[in-house]
Amino acid sequence: MKTTSCRTRVVPLLLGALVCLAGLAWSGVGRAAETDAARPGRVEVMLAAEYRKDGEAIKQHFVEAGLANVHLQFMKQGQPPPNIGVGREVTAERARAAIRLAKKYNRGVTILLPTHLFPAHYVTIASSSFDDTVEYAIQDEELRQLEDPALTTEQFHELYRQFTIMRVPASKKGRVF
Length: 177
Prior knowledge:
The protein is of the alpha/beta class. 36% of the residues lie in helices and 12% in strands.
């Protein structure tokens, strides 16, 4: 029976670990210098069918507002929900732009979706993917507070979190077993 030394088993493991660490370090080079413009995050928007013919122009409005990675979808009929959701690292400027465009193209914003449901740099407008247990009604005055250009990103998200805590217990709908 042939035995192998400890050295012949450990050296390949150490070399493998070194290669992995070098790869991780290389892939992170320059990441700290990235700005939101470099990785803007996705913006998903559901619009009423009446806007389908203006899709390219609407997409251009989003790009001009700093929301370049926008994906538009159109309902076949009816109106999409008047909600908006933003990820926890979306800048206040981008969030305000999303609110402004949601008000313009989606009959306003009356519902906020909590940040913990989304990736960090993600924005959704008029999503029908959530039920009423995670929807938080927002009043016009509260929405105006979020639109205040003086808010920093941290202040914006603190206010957003305050508006998405349960104020009134959700009513139970349907059958409860």
